[in-house]
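Problem 12. The chain below contains 138 residues. Write out its predicted structure in token notation.
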Amino acid sequence: MTGHEGGCLCGQVRFRVSTPALSSGYCHCRMCQKSSGAPVVAWVTFPACGFSWIAGTPRTYGSSARAKRQFCAQCGSYMLFRSEDSPDEVSVNTASLDDPGVFPPQMHIFTESRITWFHTRDALPTHQGYGPFQRPED
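Solution.
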């Protein structure tokens, strides 16, 4: 098999990515915090053309006017983020991969929403907002 697989906690929903990663990082935004129940979400972005669901059907939640999050309806595991601003990309919740250690974070984004008591001990670049992935002007 070429690529990487992952899925939800209960195993009903599974996915595969068959293209190299574009970027990875930690997101400190409030939506990621609330959707995961964690102070930060590690993510890895891939070209959408290389992503496919291989078992089950995820539920989709429109977390904003321009973004959707996909998760397992059975166990609630949050696996995927899609943005209308980057329709050719998908961001996978790194922890939902079978081997999350393959994609270490390269940066922090939305650090203005970082929970004050949460700190990582790394020297990765930090960005307010999208950082190097600035949202196009409407």
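Discussion. The mean pLDDT is 91. Students who got a different answer should revisit the alignment rule from Section 12.3.
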